[in-house]
Amino acid sequence: MIVVFLQLTLGFYFLGTLLLLVYLLRRSDVLAKVALGMTGVGCTIHTGVLVFQVVSGADAWRVSFQSALSFFSWSLVIVFLTAVFLQRLYVLGSFMLPLAFLALVSTAVLPSETQALHPMFQEVWIHVTLSMLGTVGFAVAFVSGVMYLTQDWLLKSKQFNLLYAKLPPLDFLDRLNQRSILLGFPFLTMGILTGAMSAQITFGAYLSWNSEQIWALVTWAFYLVVMMGRVTVGWRAKKAAYLTVVGFVGVLLTFLGVILKGESFPISS
Predict the structure, then answer these.
(1) Whether 122 and 254 share a structural domain
(2) d(CA 37, CA 127)
(3) Which end of the chain is more exposed for a tag (fewer CB within 10 A), N or C?
(4) Is the Cβ–Cβ distance between 136 and 84 less than 8 Å?
């Protein structure tokens, strides 16, 4: 039954993604509003699935990439819906919803087997949740960086077309980029710390220095440099946009490494 509802969620997210991409080429906001409705229905179903999994206890404490990516996808959609509610930023969904859709699609192609966590270590879900929230922050920074670079290119090439009109101003995208990093970084930091403490309790070592942990620490250090550069050195917005795009590639490589190894979510190994 859960599979059926997830398929429905994917269907609504796909329709929302398709309509929002077409919306970039149309002057009317009708497509965006229809896409918003589709996305809202999909998010409602998705929320119900996540709540059911927790309440039923069937998969509530299974730490896997399926559950982590599903939560990541849901969180991105919530951010988009919030942005529309507060700022009417339909165009943000044209860049963000495809990422949420692909994240949820990937859960269908990953191996269905997951490794259940021992009950005494169920607090590792704190680690997973915090890490995913940090990743959501970096994903929003990535999207705002892509939008900033696109808008900057359109402006410099004097292509004042429909896409240019739909994209937010550069200063808004710059603030969104900076705030997303400032929000995402503490979550990732707490996620790494709780993961290390869980590993110490379970295996007697804070770090096992596997490839996933190394990539996670490199990603953390990278975003620390970006954050400090923005806050203290005053790096220009364009440089920060490029760096956040590159940094998110590091996040994706971390995920890809775990997927290729076919392991459960890496708190240790």
Answers:
(1) yes
(2) 33
(3) N
(4) no
209 burial level (CB within 10 Å; 0-12, 13-18, 19+): exposed
Of 46, 80, 115, which residue is a domain's last? 115
d(CA 70, CA 67): 5
Tally of domains within the chain? 2
Residue 66 structural domain: 1-115
- Give yes or no: residues 2 and 72 share one domain: yes
| Side chain identity at residue 141, one-letter code | A
Q: Taking the CB of residue 108, how many other CB atoms lie within 10 A of it?
A: 12
What single DSSP character describes residue 266? -
Count of beta carbons in the 10 Å neighbourhood of residue 159:
10
Mean pLDDT per 10-residue interval, the chain, length 269 residues: 88 96 89 95 94 69 70 94 91 94 83 46 68 92 95 92 91 92 92 79 68 77 89 79 88 68 45
Residues 134 and 29 in one domain: no
